[in-house]
Predict the structure.
Amino acid sequence: MLLGQEISIYLVRLIDDNLTQLKKLNDDIFSRQYSDRYYADALASGELTKLAYHNYTCVGAIACRCEKKEDGAVRVYIMTLGVLAPYRRLGIGTRLMNHVLDLSSKENISEVYLHVVADNGDAINFYKKFGFEKTETIGNYYRSSESGVKDGYVFTKRLVIVKEQEVPEGKDANTDKKCETSSALLKLKR
Ligand code: ACO
């Protein structure tokens, strides 16, 4: 229906008021209910979780969680990325992924990773295009009544860390940040 069309898309931050949009989208795309923890993590990730709108319709989303590794480094976990079927191959997934990768780079986050079902060739093609590499195979990772038991892959993208600039005395280190730093990232970095 929309093949070859250029459509205008805008990204909106996840807030309490549009949480039901993400729930509906996940229901449509992944046919599953996510836990309260998933939605709490998505809300806490601030600008890292975005809904994609075409006109007034929510047609896609990327939902992330910020994690602190044992060595203290912060990494971003993409919990879900999905676009409604009629809106696929129009660059919406690209918009959402670029947003998260750009923001992660700006925040000097060294790693973005995710899990994907081993037979989800479409998504794997998509992730490879963005430079993600398979870093682990987990046997029997996914279980569902419809699809049975399936292996999962971990795909990871390492980002180049830009050395932090020295902050002149008396100046707040965050004042000149180009992007709005999410409170979740700030807390994790402390
Ligand atoms: N087959 C082959 N390559 C593909 C496909 C596909 N079906 N879809 C995307 N790609 C690749 C292509 O290289 C494409 O570029 P091109 O169209 O110029 O050839 C490129 O990715 C970018 O495609 P977009 O249009 O930006 O991606 P889209 O908006 O369609 O979103 C997504 C991709 C999110 C994977 C979508 O197919 C989707 O929602 N799938 C169902 C849900 C899903 O499987 N999500 C990932 C699960 S894993 C997780 O959530 C962490």
Q: What stands out?
A: The domain at 10-163 is CATH 3.40.630.30 (Aminopeptidase). The first strand starts at residue 10 and ends at 13. Residues 29, 78, 80-83, 88-94, 114, 116, 120, 122-123, 125-126, 129 surround acetyl coenzyme *A (CB under 6 Å). Confidence is low (pLDDT under 50) at residues 172-181.
